[in-house]
Amino acid sequence: MSRLKFAANLSLLFTERPLIERFAAARAAGFDAVEIQFPYSLTPEQIRQELETHQLKLVLINIPAGDWEAGERGLACLPGREQAFAAALDQALDWAQRLNVDKINCLAGVPPADMSAELIAQTLAQNLTLAAERCHQAGIELMIEAINTEDVPGFYLHRSAQVCELIKRLELPSTGLQYDVYHMQIMEGNLISTLQRNADKIGHIQIADVPGRHEPGTGEINFTNLFKALEAQGYAGHISLEYVPKNQTEAGLGWLATWMTQD
């Protein structure tokens, strides 16, 4: 039996059903942990009921990322949006505390082209410092994620080294790298070496294959080797399935059943 722990991302999996019905589907598929990118279309009470009914742990949510329809993909690096970021952080912390969520993910965002690089960097540092301090006080881990610039052109943090450098330079407490295998395979490759080199900095892992962002086995990544490396280095966090199923969700979970039955 694998020593690794897997979680279902309910924002991308089981989308054949409304979000409120995906908790039951995840449990029926064998998961005991889930994450939701932006759970705010439901109420905390609705989510708590589903978690309790289906004996699930909600392991991670994102800080609201701003006006998604207008192209915002995070507020942390946007000069002039500091109050909006603080309000979004307040909301995420409130939900995390009410739902016993251990980790909150922060998306840096896509900075405006007409802003100075210095101002953007200062804004990000200020907002991350605030988020880390607030999360630390609440006993919650802050995650910072790098996103590939093919899917999200201009995303400010797009390499694992950028995130690790920020955490170290700003001395952010209770803060780790959210390592998304899909994004980092596109941006930098060398997955296993990067995971090993940053083992003490990685707080959460998400997976999807490349290209297509589908389930493992549909692309170029050797997930068996990746999972064995994570076991060998003693990774104790969750590995979240944050992919777009190629067909129906349950039909694409065969790879997980095979892995979980390995000795």
What report would you give on this structure?
- With 263 residues, the protein is of the alpha/beta class.
- The chain has a single domain, classed as Divalent-metal-dependent TIM barrel enzymes (TIM Barrel, Alpha-Beta Barrel), CATH 3.20.20.
- Helices cover 38% and strands 15% of the residues.
- The protein is built from 9 helices and 8 strands.
- The chain has an 8-stranded parallel barrel with strand order 1-2-3-4-5-6-7-8, surrounded by 5 helices.
- Helix 1 links the parallel strand 1 and strand 2.
- Helix 7 packs parallel to helix 8.
- The N and C termini lie close together (5 Å).
- The model has no long low-confidence stretch (mean pLDDT 96).
Which descriptors apply to this entry?
eight-stranded parallel β-barrel, 9 helices, globular
Question: What is the CATH first-level class name?
Answer: Alpha Beta
Low-confidence stretches: none
The helix/strand series, from N terminus to C terminus, equals EHEHEHEHEHEHHEHEH
Radius of gyration: 18 Å
Considering the protein shown, what is the CATH homologous superfamily? Divalent-metal-dependent TIM barrel enzymes
Shape: globular
Biggest β-sheet description: 8 strands, parallel, barrel
